[in-house]
Amino acid sequence: MGKTIAQKIFEKHLLEKPFKDTYILKLDRVFCHEITTPIAINDLCERGKDRVFDKTKIKAVIDHVTPAKDSKTATQEKILRDWAKRNDIKDFFDIGSNGVCHAIFPEKGFVRPGFTVIMGDSHTCTHGAFGAFAAGVGTTDLEVGILKGVCSFKEPKAIKFVLNGTLKPGVYAKDVILHLIGKIGVNGATNCVVEFTGPIVDNFGMEERMTICNMAVEAGATSGICFPDQKTVDYLWEFIKDEYKTKEEALADYQQWKSDPDAEYEKVIECDLSDLQPLATIGYKPDQVKPIAELAGTKVDQIYIGSCTNGRISDLRVAAEVLKGKRLAPGVRGIVSPATPKIYKMALDEGLLSIFMDAGFCVTNPTCGACLGMSNGVLAEGEVCASTTNRNFNGRMGKGGMVHLMSPASAAATAIAGTITNSPLYKA
Length: 428
Hints:
The protein is α/β, with parallel strands linked by helices and 428 residues long. It has helices at residues 5-13, 37-46, 71-86, 101-107, 139-148, 173-184, 199-203, 206-214, 230-240, 247-254, 292-295, 307-310, 313-323, 341-349, 352-358, 408-417; strands at residues 14-19, 22-26, 29-33, 58-61, 92-93, 116-119, 133-136, 150-154, 157-164, 192-197, 223-226, 267-272, 279-281, 289-291, 302-306, 333-337, 361-363, 384-387, 402-405.
């Protein structure tokens, strides 16, 4: 019987199997940020274990509230900063060089096909776009990962999506993942690894693959995975060119990180997405999804473009294409947060930030802030936000606020109209 990509990764990284369905895996990367890691750091210090398993495999960033908004967040940042200095963590990204974790770590080439990655953040599944097993974990697992470089996981069950057809103009990766979550529900992939395959995924670039893997957790998945291919090699080439003589050699090596044709799955779900429309969430769960057209006229107070889901350069380019020469509707405020300094500079050099500012948007530094209601765009009670983020939970962006998740194109069009609307890029 063949194996899935997750089973192959587990097999290569297996250190011990203490119980029938429990795997102790060696970790290739442990990612850290200032919200969840300080708890682990403090506990390790109290236990007299202020050390790390491998300073080259731990990467840390201050990204959720940056710069600090109050004494509490400043303290959290100081704990991470001092820990990184004590333990000589070279890849620590502080204020000025920092970006949203799930954008800056791939951008730096820290994720490779076949890797095992953990972080105290549920959207760590983003990194599965590179053919890695990447999962968000709790504080105890994070502590063990930092100290010993290992983590415990249950046997990986898999669900396979085969995405067929060709997307219509104006339909994006965000619409695809919202459709899939709506199809199987927020618990539809619980304790499973979700594989995204098929012609649509093959045609996606790495940024689009990161978008769909990022939201795999919204269907309950432990991780989302795309198989590595030539696009993966091209994206990573500047980081791996000393490891391989040619791109062809790298691609040949990465081919081992694909599921076998006869691998077993919990489910195989085939979808033809040729008729998919732009989508948005309603209510307070990511699987509550409707076509934008059915929500037309829904008033909004704020537009937010950014996050680890849709704050990359391709997202900003699409939004700017819609906004160019236009203005925010009266009474609507717009916020755009490029996900990393590199993306910010690219957007600046390409004139995208001028387009946003001319349209009336506030352009902020790279931060997670508004996505989880911590800073830089928190909603007041009763306010409505059209957002390119990944969660619409009750109170997510502010107590009593409502969040409609959608693509950057749809968010930009909504900014101009003042009500939810399809972008002019969509051709039905």
